[in-house]
Amino acid sequence: MTDFKYEVDADGVAIITWDAVGKSMNVLTREAFGLVEGYIDQALADDAVKGIVITSAKKDFAGGMDLNTLATIREEAGDEPAKALFDFTMNGHRVLRKLERAGMEPKTNKGGKPVACAINGTCAGIGTEIALACHHRVMTDNPKSKIGLPEILVGIFPGGGGTIRYSRMVGAMAASPVLLEGKMLDPAKAKGAKLVDDVSADPVAAARDWVLNATNADIIKPWDAKGYKMPGGAPYNPAGFPTFVGASAMVNGKTQGAFPAAKALLSAIYEGALVDFDTALKIEARWFTNVLMNPSSSAMIRSLFLNKQALEKGAVRPQGIEDQSVKKLGVLGAGMMGAGIALVSAQAGIEVVLIDRDQEAADKGKAYTASYLDKGMKRGKVTADKKEAMLSLITATPDLAALEGCDLIIEAVFEDPAVKAEMTKKVEAVIPEDCIFASNTSTLPITDLAQASSRREQFIGIHFFSPVEKMLLVEIIKGKETRDRAVAKALDYVRQIRKTPIVVNDARFFYANRCIIPYINEGLRMITEGVSPALIDNAARQLGFPVGPIQLNDETSIDLGAKIARATKAAMGNAYPASPADDLIFWLEEEGRLGRKANAGFFDYDEKGKRVGYWNGLAEKYPLAEDQPDLTEVQERLMFAQVLEAVRALEENVLMDIREGDVGAVLAWGFAPWSGGPLSWLDIIGTPYAAERCDQLAATYGDRFACPQLLRDMAAKGQSFYGRFDPEAKAA
Questions:
Q1: Half-sphere exposure of 611 (CA within 13 A, CB side)
Q2: What interhelical angle do 687-701 and 709-717 show, nearest 10?
Q3: CA dist., res. 118 & res. 215, Å (int)
Q4: Contacts of 592 (CB under 8 A, 6+ apart)
Q5: What CA–CA distance (Å, rounded) separates 301 from 193?
Q6: Of 331, 522, 560, which is closest to residue 423 (Cα–Cα)?
Q7: Which of 241-255, 312-326, 666-680, 716-730 has the lowest mean pLDDT?
Q8: Which of 24, 145, 195, 373 has its Cα between 20 and 30 A from that of 57?
C-alpha cells in the first residue's frame, strides 16, 4: 500500500506528502500512480489552492519504480505483454504531463498552477522523473543525498519521461553522464547539471516560497514555449549533427554494442528530438517497452537489482542465529589484501588489529588507509576529522597478544598451506574460544586449511577480490565442518562493510576462480592455435566483458597463473588436465614477462606503464593462422568455458543458490552484465541449444566442452534454470 498525505495550508499551498507504507524508501507502484493523480486533480480543481508542493515523509524522497510491478504487468498480460507495458508507460506519461501542464490552457499556456518538488533526501529513477515534471525542484543541502537516473545500470533506461525531459533541458551531450552513465549527483553537482533548481536546508519551505511567488512564465516548460530549440542543437542542425554522431560513437565505443538499453536510450533521444514533445514521449515509451521485452533487461533487473538486493538482505543467512555483527576484527597479514580489508572494515566503524611480521610491515599496511583517505581529502570527500577517526580504529602491530578480544579473524598471509597452518595455530592460542577464524585464500580448499584448527566448526573462507575497496563481491566458503554460526558471522560482517556476499561449498577454486580460470585459459589456448590476440580480447569486450582474457591475465600477473597451475597439478596428480595454456604461461614466466607489474607480458608497455600493443614475440612463437575463426566461434568458446563450470558447480552443490551464481559472476569478474550472469545466459539461449552447442564444441575442441548431465537432462525436458531452481519461485 502507498499513502499520500494531502493538506492545504493557510497560504493556499497544497502539500502532497509521499509515504510508501512498510518500505524504507518510497517506490512507485500502479496504485501510487492512481493516488497521486487523484490528489493532483483535487488541487487543480480547488480554487483555494494557489500551487502544489510534492515531498516525502521519509528521510529520502524516492528510490524509483518497484521493479516487481513491471514483472507483474508482464505476467498478467497474457499474450500481449508488450501492449500492457506500453499502455502502463503511456499512462505514467499522461499523469506526469498533467502535473507538468498543471491546468494550463493549451493554446495560451495560461491559467496553470505552479508545482514544486521538495527533495528532502536521495532521489532516483521515477522519483527524479516526477521531479523533472515539476516546474521547480528544491533539494536538501545534505551532501550525502544524491539524485540521478541510474536505470541504465540495471539494464533499462529512464522511461517515465526522464530521457526526453532531461535531454531537452540540457542537450544530448550534457545529459549523457546522467542518462548513459547513471551517475548519482550530490546537491551542488545536481544544481550545476540542472537536475535541481535550488538547494536549501529546508527544501519544503523553499519550495513553498517559490510556489507563492511564481509567475505564469515560471511554470511554462521550455518545450511548451514558442520557439523552443534543443540546447546543443537537434540532430539535423549544423551544431547538433556532430553531437549526435559523436554520441553514437561514444555509446558504441563504451558498450561495444552489448547493452541494448544504451542503444535504445540514444535512439529515443535522437528520434524524440525530431518531433514535438508529446510525440517524443510516445517514442520514449516504445523504446522503453522494446528494452523491457528484451530478455537481457529481465535478466539484468533480476540479477543486478532483485537478486543482489535479496543476497545483501540475508536471503541465504542461516535461520535462528542471533546477530553476529563484528566488533573487533583481527587481520593477519598487512600486504595488499590485508591492508584493503583493514581499510573497508575501518570505514564501517569496526575496530581493527592489523598484524604483520614486524612493526614496519604492519605500519605500511596501515599507511594504505592513510593514503586512501588523503586522496579522498583532495577530492573533498573526506575531512581531517574523519581521517583521524578512521586511522584511530586501526592498530598496526606484530604482537599477536593484541588480538585478544577479537570476535573475527581474517587471515591474509602468503598463499602457502604451511604458512597458513602455522599462523592459525599461533593465533588460536590467543583469541577467544568463540572467535570465528576466516581465511582469505583465493584457491586453497578451506577444508584442508581447517585441519590446522582446533575449532573447525568455526573455520570459514572469506574470499575478497582485489582491490578490496573497489570490488563489490565477497565469496564466503563453507568447509566440510563449518557450522552455521560461522556462516552467519561472515554474512553479517560482509553486510557491515556494505558488500554483496555469496555463500558456496568448499571445492578447488571455489566458484569465482573456478569459472575465471577457464575463461583465461581458453583465450591462451587460442593464441597457441594461431588466433589473433586482438580478436580474442575484442571478442570478449563485444560480449560486454570489461577486459578480454589476455589482458586480464596481464593485469592479474602471469607468474600468479603459473603458480596456480603448478599447485593444481601437484594436488591433482595424474588427474590434472594438461593444457597448451600452461606451456604458454610457463614460457612467458621464463622470459621474465610477468605482466603489467613487470611492464612486460602479453603486452608491451611504455615507461609510464601504458599498454602500447601486443608483444611481437607472441606471433614469433605462435604464428598467426592464415584463416582466423569467426567472431561468434571465439565468443562461444569464451562463454561456454565459463558457463559450463557454473553448471558443474551447481551440479556438484558448490553453488547452493543460482542467484549467487549469477550475481557472483557479474560482480566478481564482470561476466557479460547484459546477460544477468552465466545461468541467466543459458536461459536466454535455451538449454536445448546450449546442450547441442556443447556437443559441437566438444567434438571440435575437446572434452572440456562436454555437456554436464544436469544441462543435458534439462535440455531434454525443455527446462530453464530459473524455472527449475529459482528460490523465489519455490517459496511462492
A1: 14
A2: 140
A3: 19
A4: 598, 600
A5: 27
A6: 331
A7: 241-255
A8: 195
Three-state DSSP state, 191: helix
How many Cα atoms are found within 13 Å in the side-chain-facing hemisphere of 280? 26
Bridge partners, residue 56, by sequence: 18
* Grid cell for residue 376: 579522498
For residue 549, cis peptide bond before it (omega within 30 degrees of 0):
no
Task: For the beta carbon of residue 20, count every other beta carbon within 10 angstroms.
Answer: 23
Cα–Cα distance, 145 to 218 (Å, whole number): 26
Helix, coil or strand: residue 555: helix
Element (H, E) at 249: helix 240-255
C-alpha cell at 205: 519551505
Q: Treating both helix axes as pointing N-terminal to C-terminal, what angle do 359-378 and 384-392 enclose, rounded to 10 degrees?
A: 160
Q: Torsion-angle region of residue 650: left (phi > 0), alpha (psi -120 to 50) or beta?
A: alpha
Give the model confidence (pLDDT) of 365-416 as tens digits. 999 999 999 999 998 888 999 999 999 999 999 999 999 999 999 999 988 8
Phi then psi for residue 472, to 5 deg, are -90, -20
pLDDT in tens, 420-439: 999 999 999 999 999 999 99
Kindly indicate the confidence band of residue 297, based on its pLDDT and cuts at 50, 70 and 90: confident
Q: Under DSSP, is residue 41 helix (H, G, I), strand (E, B) or coil?
A: helix
Q: What is the pLDDT of residues 337-349, one digit of tens each?
A: 999 999 999 999 9
Q: Summarize the confidence of residues 603-616 as an average pLDDT.
A: 93
Q: Please name the amino acid found at residue 710.
A: L
Task: Give the DSSP letter of residue 59.
Answer: S
Q: What angle do CA 229, 230, 234 make, to 5 degrees?
A: 105
Asked whether the beta carbons of 711 and 694 are under 8 A apart, the reply is yes
Q: What's the DSSP call for residue 623? A: P
| Cell numbers placing 330 | 583481527
User: How much is the pTM?
Assistant: 0.88
Q: How confident is residue 578, by pLDDT bands cut at 50, 70 and 90? A: confident
Q: What is the dihedral of CA 672, 516, 309, 140, to 10 degrees?
A: -70
CA quadruple 91, 96, 97, 98: dihedral sign = positive
Q: How far is CA 488 from CA 108, 306, 452, in A?
A: 64, 21, 22
Task: Name 476's bridge partners.
Answer: 462, 503
**Non-local CB neighbours of 606 within 8 Å, separated by 6+ positions:** 612
What is the Cα–Cα distance from 516 to 645, expressed in whole angstroms? 9
Phi and psi torsions of 562, nearest 5°: -65, -40
Q: Rounded to an integer, what is the distance from CA 2 to the centroid of its chain? A: 28
Taking each helix axis from N to C end, the angle separating 336-347 and 384-392, rounded to the nearest 10 degrees, works out to 120
Q: State yes or no: pLDDT of 141 exceeds 80.
A: yes
What residues form DSSP beta bridges with 508? none
Going by C-alpha positions, the residue among 290, 257, 274 that lies closest to residue 164 is 274
Residue type, 585: I
Least Cα distance to 292 among 468, 83, 128 occurs for: 83
What percent of the chain stands above pLDDT 70? 99
Q: Are 553 and 523 in contact (CB under 8 A)?
A: yes
Radius of gyration of the chain (CA): 28
Contacts of 20 (CB under 8 A, 6+ apart): 2, 3, 26, 27, 29, 32, 58
**In the chain, what's the furthest Cα-to-Cα distance?**
87
